[in-house]
Design a protein that fits this description.
By secondary structure, this protein is an alpha/beta fold. The relative contact order is 0.14. The chain binds pyridoxal-5'-phosphate.
Length: 424
């Protein structure tokens, strides 16, 4: 498969180039030349396949000729020690994407990307340094994803005192080939330091970012759309609608890829919080990025969704309107939804999943939705400061309880590039 830049069609590369460089040299994002289809034999037996087999069938066409089949199987088996179950809640389906080690769906992308990096760099003797800045969630998934992966070390910069105790333990509690740096500043300061470190070190050491726009994080997110749609579909005419809580739209773009590949999906609901750039675009056809505003579903506080560029390169505005419905949800409605679903069904939604739930409520009045699958993108215990005042104590999964027992080891630095470089 060839990949090209969303900004310049003539900038192309292999899967390896797209993954190892992250961004194209013109600043665009890599997209596949053509979204492939599932093999007919796979398509007819999706409902009987296990998660690893669906993962294999989903990813194979994107990496064919570059990752041999046995190596791809190994990557999948080692990345996915958990899966994505569907549960029934109040007449709807909830796709639980929080059974990975950091209890959010980013585990699906980060763990695949880390192992793919290691495979594509096999035989390289120079160690690779991965450098990322995080405002909270991404850092934990990336540190965990690369933990124990040979030949690669990860440094995560986070703003000291501005991440939750749980997030800090996910970022700074692993040790081994991961390292955490607490910066006495803001997330923006962390991001600036990472950029400056790249510029200063690029010539001397192999350094890369595990950016969320990497195509190796996007593609594996298609797996769970296919596995869940195949398991809930009742007939060829009766396909489910997926409601996707969205920020940078990587998750939703992966869903669109799965559908294009042949997964039995009717349509999508793109659910945002009050950062409503995308619902406004779908309504008007005019894309107007804005400053992001803080909300309770903070992993979706994005005013300029990075994967819009990908969607826009594949589909026209008119096509997007056929593929998706979209609306935004306020914090007040997010809280009411957490409360309502807990009272009527005894199920704990996290603030992100609640946005997806509420958006489906909204369209259920005007559209014949049929079966609805809500993507629950994080475990509610990860956002206990929001959820518990509404529902009472949220049961903590063993994976998160284990994280809370970890000791934090981080180097503390001022906002100063020399301090960072001397650490690296
Ligand atoms: C990152 C994240 C999102 C948003 O996903 P995008 O791919 O950026 O749209 C939603 N929920 C949670 C819990 C997240 O961590």
């Amino acid at each position: 498969m060839r990949y090209y830049s969303t900004r310049t069609k003539s900038i192309t590369g292999s899967f390896a180039k797209a993954v190892l460089s992250g961004l194209a040299e013109d600043g665009g994002l890599f997209v596949p030349e053509e979204i492939p289809s599932y093999r007919p034999a796979a398509l007819s037996s999706l409902g009987k396949m296990n998660f690893h087999d669906i993962a294999y069938e989903t990813i194979l066409p994107y990496v064919k000729g570059e990752i041999p089949e046995a190596a791809l199987r190994d990557i999948i088996t080692s990345a996915y020690t958990f899966d994505a179950p569907v549960v029934t809640v109040g007449g709807r389906y909830v796709l639980e994407l929080f059974h990975g080690p950091t209890a959010a769906f980013k585990d699906f992308g980060a763990r695949f990307m880390a192992r793919t990096f290691a495979y594509l760099r096999r035989g390289e003797t120079r160690p690779l340094k991965i450098l990322v800045a995080t405002s909270g969630d991404t850092g934990g998934a990336v540190a965990d994803g690369f933990f124990g992966v040979e030949g690669i070390s990860v440094t995560v910069l986070y703003p000291q005192g501005r991440v939750s105790p749980l997030q800090e333990r996910q970022i700074a509690g692993l040790g081994g080939n991961t390292r955490a740096v607490a910066v006495k500043g803001s997330f923006d300061d962390c991001q600036r330091l990472v950029k400056e470190a790249f510029a200063a070190l690029k010539k001397r050491v192999d350094i890369s970012s595990a950016n969320s726009i990497n195509i190796a994080r996007l593609i594996p997110q298609a797996i769970y759309y296919t596995s869940s749609s195949a398991s809930v579909r009742k007939s060829a005419e009766d396909l489910p609608v997926f409601s996707v809580p969205s920020g940078n739209f990587g998750n939703l773009t992966a869903g669109l890829y799965a559908q294009k590949m042949g997964a039995p999906i009717k349509r999508f609901i793109a659910a945002t919080n009050i950062n409503k750039t995308f619902p406004e675009y779908l309504e008007s056809g005019v894309y107007k990025a804005r400053e992001s505003q803080a909300t309770l579903s903070n992993a979706m506080d994005v005013g300029s969704p990075s994967n819009f560029e990908r969607m826009n390169s594949h589909w026209t505005h008119k096509e997007m309107r056929e593929l998706m419905l979209s609306t935004f949800v306020t914090d007040d409605d997010t809280k009411k939804t957490i409360s309502g679903v807990h009272k009527t069904c005894g199920y704990f939604l996290d603030p992100h999943g609640a946005v997806g739930w509420k958006a489906a409520d909204y369209f259920e009045k005007s559209e014949a939705l049929g079966d609805v699958v809500i993507l629950e993108t994080a475990h509610p215990a990860k956002f206990s400061e929001t959820v518990e005042p509404i529902t009472g104590a949220v049961p903590m999964p063993e994976s998160l309880a284990g994280v809370m027992r970890r000791a934090v080891h981080s180097d503390v630095i001022p906002v100063d590039i020399d301090a960072l470089i001397s650490l690296l």
